[in-house]
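Troubleshooting log. The previous structure file for this entry was overwritten by mistake, so regenerating from the original sequence record. Sequence copied from the archived sheet and checked twice against the printout by T.R.
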Amino acid sequence: MEDFIAIDFETANSNAYSPCSVGIARFENGILADSFYSLINPEQEFDGMNIFVHGIYPEDVKNAPTYKEIYPKIEKWISGKLVVSHSGFDRNVLTKSAAYYNVPPIDINFFDTLTLSRRLIPGVQHGLSQMVDYYHLDGINKFHNALEDAKACGLIAVSLSKQFSDSSILELITNAGYKSFGKISSDEYIPFALHKSSAAPAKLLSVDDILTREKIHKTDISNMYIKDKNIAFTGKLQSMTRDEAKAIVTNLGATFQKNVTLKTNILVVGLEDPRVVGPDGKSNKIKKAEQINSKTNNIEVIDEKEFIQFISK
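Regenerated output below.
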């Protein structure tokens, strides 16, 4: 298995350029070999919700290095390496902090375990703690501690690789349909993206093909994945209307939500109208989910195809 670095940040507030701690874990041939942790003075105010999540207070970082001061150490650890995080959040911290502090972006190849696990293991929750439970990983003592989260992410990457490849990370992402590792450098940014053939949506069934009223009544609701979940929708669904989706969600024991809130468990993303959402392609609901996930990672963002898989079980 290729050697790689797992990285995790905690932030002081909703700004990606407000890191208040960093954890880095180096894995060699699938084994944790070394690690690094530091508090960071974000030089910004702390948000109470962030403090609630990670337990870091302003007084804890009073004498800690700023990002610009700790940047050389982070660069030494990850420059030129294959880097994994559990989502794009931590890469965003790297790039936004580099821009904010006027330092060069660190050259890395990258992938993330959240998108991989969603693609390879449908029907379960894919947050960091849930994947640790899924793989029965030992030795992770505290979530939302940057070092513990980095270790957990690295162990999940190893577990995915062992399950879906011959212990090669490159083979793992290839088997999952990705072109190659993503890349960050001073000259370019290449996303961690699927092959076009893999990304093309499958032909979707009509709502009657998916789940008829008779099938709802025959379904053992107690075994449905979405039971007791709070579910919101954004964008245009291809296989059903929003009202039909609401009826299905309600009949299967879940709660339909008009808006994304802290109580939301699942956000289903349909086709977004670029005239409405703007050039980044993200609706307000998606942006709200990302904001909440930056602190709790509790909202599972899925596409329509995954939703159909959930309700068809």
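The CA atoms of residues 210 and 312 lie 6 Å apart. Archived copy saved in two places this time.
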